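FORM 12-B: Structure-to-Sequence Request
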């Protein structure tokens, strides 16, 4: 038994409340090293003649990555207090694992064990319930639709007349979005994420000039109010993009600092390293990356904090938005985000707070900062499985198992899953413009755990390389759209809405393989029902046999609505199947 691989802590993704009375406990062990794990648990105050009274319950294997096995159990401490340890068996060897280390026998001293002192209702991670059922659609406003040429920026090009560049404009605006809300509703979209809409210099608007004003090329505040109201009439939620890590070069406080140097009243709003300020490849002031046009804000400064928190509150109070996506969220201090959460949740408790973080995000997901992060590990692994085809199904399952066990399950339920964005090449381009691979990759997106997001135009096969190529004008002529892909994605969205388990009800697990195949299989289930998703990420036909028995004539293919009589499935190249059955 390899002790160094055994890991548990009574917090974060290893031990957490899923409701006021239920605790989810996990343990990590070396892969294929442990044959049995039991949880020893009890109330620390229940003794019999000085001996602690505990129960033992078996834990279950919830998944395996490339190095480790993960075990889990749900328990309901009757008095909401719990001390616990683990009984481990490997062959004839048996150990007890506790907070104080390893023992040959279970110690009587409760102080040796892991502790959850009390399950507090107000410490349960609680993200907005509506997010679990949301199908997001990311809109880059400058490139979605030009509905009002009168507000086009100077030098705007005719719609789609040339390839996107870092500095060209095509006149996308709020009116254009309004004119196409029926399109989004018909597709099945019920959440829109807008990249920045505030007054800025660039076409991407991540270089804010005025956080309290709409960029005039998009329209007016009244236009935004109308847009939000029309979205809400269609049960479409609206999330805006907050760029609080840095401002734009032409942000008035930064211009004041450029002009007055050390004498500027805004000196402490930024992070200057000397005067006069100098840009170039390595500015002498802190920036996003090394972009001289994006000076980093000092969010620990009381005046900056007040300004930004008032900004966040204003757009909720005045425009009734439903979410904030937080740009470069990992480079802003956590005390700021805690105040941000308190501010916005006091105004609208079910507002969705989404952070842009590309790495392990557990520190931001403890219930005091964000509701979710953008799930780039999901993006990366699905891309490598289907688009670049650099990993096989086993590697994908192992990688995603590690990601899934990195967070509490109730956190993963609302994580923001995406295939592409304004920062990445178009997924249809990455799939070699192969419509079957594009269908398959969207099937993963729309059946996996989490809240899925489609980048505008991906549903019609829009192409493009890395930024700025991925920011083409939306194509509205149907004869120029890939309608085959569109119809498939529309069907998948409808299926996700019809079948609760395809959204985020119940539990999740990858399925073991009986056959030596390159199939990805996972199950979403509750006590009464299961939905199984089978994916063939290769160009050759493969088969898969379900690793459990199903009641006769109880399983259906939820796409065709036909009864499936066999537990054996044949899948052609880049094909998928969604099966459902009652227990």
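FORM 12-B RESPONSE
SEQUENCE OUT:
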């Amino acid at each position: 038994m390899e002790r160094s691989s055994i890991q548990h802590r009574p917090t974060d993704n290893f031990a957490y409340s899923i409701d006021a009375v239920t605790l989810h406990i996990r343990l990590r062990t070396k892969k294929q090293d442990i044959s049995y794990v039991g949880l020893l648990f009890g109330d620390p105050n229940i003794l019999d003649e000085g001996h602690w009274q505990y129960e033992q319950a078996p834990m279950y294997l919830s998944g395996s990555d490339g190095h480790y096995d993960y075990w889990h159990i749900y328990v309901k401490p009757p008095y909401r207090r719990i001390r616990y340890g683990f009984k481990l068996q490997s062959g004839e060897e048996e150990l007890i694992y506790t907070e104080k280390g390893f023992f040959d026998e279970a110690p009587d001293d409760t102080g040796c064990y892991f502790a959850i002192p009390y399950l507090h209702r107000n410490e349960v991670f609680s993200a907005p319930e509506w997010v679990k059922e949301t199908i997001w659609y990311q809109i880059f406003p400058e490139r979605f639709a030009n509905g009002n040429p009168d507000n086009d920026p100077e030098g705007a090009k005719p719609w789609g007349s040339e390839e996107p560049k870092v500095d060209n404009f095509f006149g996308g605006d709020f009116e254009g979005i309004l004119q196409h809300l029926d399109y989004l509703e018909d597709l099945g979209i019920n959440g829109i994420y807008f990249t920045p809409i505030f007054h800025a210099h660039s076409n991407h608007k991540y270089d804010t000039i005025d956080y309290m004003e709409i960029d005039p090329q998009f329209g007016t505040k009244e236009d935004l109010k109308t847009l939000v109201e029309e979205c809400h009439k269609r049960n479409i939620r609206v999330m805006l993009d907050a760029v609080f890590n840095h401002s734009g070069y032409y942000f008035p406080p930064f211009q004041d600092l450029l002009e007055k140097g050390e004498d500027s009243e805004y000196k402490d709003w930024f992070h200057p390293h000397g005067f006069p300020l100098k840009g170039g490849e390595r500015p002498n002031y802190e920036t996003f990356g090394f972009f001289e046009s994006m000076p980093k804000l000092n969010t620990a400064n009381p005046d900056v904090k007040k300004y930004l928190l008032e900004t966040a509150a204003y757009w909720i109070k005045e425009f009734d938005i439903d979410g904030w996506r937080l740009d470069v969220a990992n480079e802003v201090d956590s005390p700021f985000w805690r105040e941000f959460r308190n501010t916005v949740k006091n105004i609208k408790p079910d507002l969705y707070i989404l952070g842009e973080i590309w790495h392990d995000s557990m520190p931001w997901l403890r219930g005091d900062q964000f509701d979710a992060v953008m799930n780039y590990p999901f993006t990366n692994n699905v891309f490598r499985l289907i688009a670049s085809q650099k990993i096989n199904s086993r590697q994908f399952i192992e990688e995603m198992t590690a990601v899934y066990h990195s967070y509490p399950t109730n956190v993963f339920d609302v994580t923001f899953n995406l295939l592409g964005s304004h920062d990445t090449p178009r997924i249809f381009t990455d799939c070699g413009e192969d419509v079957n691979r594009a269908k398959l990759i969207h099937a993963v997106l729309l059946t996996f755990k989490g809240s899925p997001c489609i980048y505008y135009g991906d549903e019609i096969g829009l192409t493009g390389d890395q930024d700025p190529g991925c920011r083409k004008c939306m194509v509205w002529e149907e004869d120029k759209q890939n309608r085959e892909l569109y119809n498939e994605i529309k069907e998948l969205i409808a299926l996700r809405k019809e079948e609760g388990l395809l959204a985020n009800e119940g539990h999740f697990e990858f399925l073991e393989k009986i056959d030596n195949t390159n199939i990805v299989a996972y199950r979403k289930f509750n006590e009464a029902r299961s939905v199984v998703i089978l994916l063939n990420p290769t160009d050759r036909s493969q088969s898969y046999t379900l690793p459990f028995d199903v009641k006769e004539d109880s399983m259906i293919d939820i796409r065709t609505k036909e009864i499936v009589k066999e537990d054996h499935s044949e899948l052609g190249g880049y094909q998928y199947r969604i099966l459902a059955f009652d227990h």
